[in-house]
């Protein structure tokens, strides 16, 4: 297998496209796409600016997590600090540092890229980059004033091993947390360890940016 198992970019002809819904942050597009057999089919999907998540790991191998209500799934989920890329072309590291400050009033001295993924590639173009943040400290200044669902968040530091158990037991469901926790566990068990992870400013073809 080796290097053959790599996702590759590809684009099929879009015969027509419309945007039946446009919200504050996301939209819905409806494309008429030509298939390899020359037929044309409709594909509806969410257009999304992209997101960043932060797996903040302290010296005791605990992960900083937040519990937040999510209306679409009618659950209160344990999650990693996360947020949207507010500006097209925004540096994802800067966005991650902002989210860690705003949601957890924390900062980190060491950053790496942990994993990149598409949240739901059959129905959305959302791309997510998860960062590993270490050398944690409390942020300076006053806490960021939160609102809406964030105003009711719980914050905790949970041992990584407990989160891995929770994922495998089907008790934790947020995709950023699931992906990040399992990716970190795999990185720690790998030959190169977390020092072999990509640098914080590694290229991100799904959401290109200027470092």
TrEMBL record:
GO MF, one term, reads: hydrolase activity
Hydrolase as UniProt keyword: yes
Q: Which residues form the Nudix hydrolase domain?
A: 46-185
InterPro entries associated with the record: NUDIX_hydrolase-like_dom_sf (IPR015797), NUDIX_hydrolase_dom (IPR000086)
Which superkingdom does the taxonomy of this entry point to?
Bacteria
Is Transcription included in the keywords of this UniProt record? no
Keywords for this entry? Hydrolase
PROSITE patterns for the chain: NUDIX
Entry-linked PANTHER family: ADP-RIBOSE PYROPHOSPHATASE (PTHR11839:SF31), UDP/ADP-SUGAR PYROPHOSPHATASE (PTHR11839)
Protein name per the record: NUDIX hydrolase
Q: What is the lineage of its organism?
A: Bacteria, Bacillati, Actinomycetota, Actinomycetes, Kitasatosporales
């Amino acid at each position: 297998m080796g290097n053959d198992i790599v996702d590759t970019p590809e684009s099929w002809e879009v015969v027509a496209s419309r945007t039946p819904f446009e919200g504050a942050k996301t939209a819905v597009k409806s494309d008429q796409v030509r298939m390899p057999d020359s037929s044309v089919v409709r594909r509806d999907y969410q257009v999304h600016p992209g997101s960043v998540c932060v797996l903040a790991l302290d010296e005791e191998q605990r992960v900083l997590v937040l519990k937040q209500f999510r209306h679409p799934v009618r659950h209160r989920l344990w999650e990693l600090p996360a947020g949207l890329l507010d500006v097209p072309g925004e540096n994802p590291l800067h966005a991650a540092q902002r989210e860690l400050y705003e949601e957890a009033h924390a900062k980190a001295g060491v950053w790496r890229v942990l994993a990149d993924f598409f949240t739901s590639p059959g129905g959305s173009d959302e791309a997510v980059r998860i960062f590993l943040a270490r050398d944690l400290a409390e942020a300076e200044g006053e806490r960021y004033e939160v609102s809406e669902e964030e105003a009711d968040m719980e914050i905790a530091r949970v041992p990584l091993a407990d989160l891995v158990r929770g994922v495998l037991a089907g008790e934790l469901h947020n995709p950023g947390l699931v992906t990040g926790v399992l990716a970190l566990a795999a990185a720690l068990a790998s030959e190169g360890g977390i020092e072999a992870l990509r640098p914080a400013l590694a290229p991100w073809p799904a959401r290109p940016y200027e470092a």
